Amino acid sequence: MASLVEELVSILVEEEKLYQEILEYARQKRDILIAADVPALEKLTGLEQAVSDSLLSYGNKQTQTLKDIASVLGKNDEQMTVTKLIGYLDTQPDIQQKLLVARDRLLETATQATALNKQNEALLKQAIELTEFDLTLFRSLRQAPETANYNKNAYNTGSLLGSSGFDAKQ
């Protein structure tokens, strides 16, 4: 039982390290989004994906370890969580403390990463809105005045100017 709990603690510590990496990438992403550096964003997204894959792997290990601990304790493995396990370890305060510290650090780091990702999401939405505004502006620059273009049936055509927005000859 103690070895399973130690394994769980090491898994939580590794997960916390991965979340620290994600947190650092989120900080870098914020700066990249502000600078509008698309190639750097693509590269960073690839790095984030690799860390996310590792995080998923550790999450699966954590789930399996919790199931193993639940079967040793004779508890329902579907309802076993790290918090419940901490409650079950009243007779082993040293192991309980290690598990508590690992869980709290993981939760704190994950919370920070989530908050920073929400900020980045807002920055991305603003960048998309700005890009849509720019596209609309460029399209409207090429349109002829709406009041001056009529076809032979007196309908407004809303036609576009020539292939470029310039009338100057070279």
Helix content: over 70%
CATH-defined architecture: Up-down Bundle
- Give a count of the beta strands, DSSP E runs of length 2 or more: 0
Count of helix runs: 4
Amino- and carboxy-terminal Cα gap: 85 Å
Estimate the global geometry from the Cα principal axes: elongated
What is the typical, i.e. mean, pLDDT? Answer: 84
The CATH topology is what?
Answer: Methane Monooxygenase Hydroxylase, Chain G, domain 1
Low-confidence residue ranges = none
Based on CA atoms alone, the radius of gyration comes out at: 28 Å
Q: What is the domain total for the residues?
A: 1
Structural class: mainly alpha
Q: Largest sheet at a glance?
A: none
Report the β-strand fraction as a percent range.
under 5%
Q: Provide the CATH top-level class.
A: Mainly Alpha
H/E order of the elements? HHHH
Assembly state of the chains shown? single chain
Protein model, in words:
- Helix content is 75%, strand content 0%.
- With 170 residues, it is mainly α.
- It has one domain (2-120): Methane Monooxygenase Hydroxylase, Chain G, domain 1, CATH 1.20.58.
- The termini are far apart.
- The mean pLDDT is 84.
Give the structure's gist in a few sentences.
With 170 residues, the protein is mainly alpha-helical.
Secondary structure layout:
Elements: H1 2-35, H2 38-73, H3 82-88, H4 93-142
Helix pairs in contact: 1-2, 1-4, 3-4
Annotation keywords:
single chain; 170 residues; mainly alpha; Methane Monooxygenase Hydroxylase, Chain G, domain 1; 0% strand; elongated
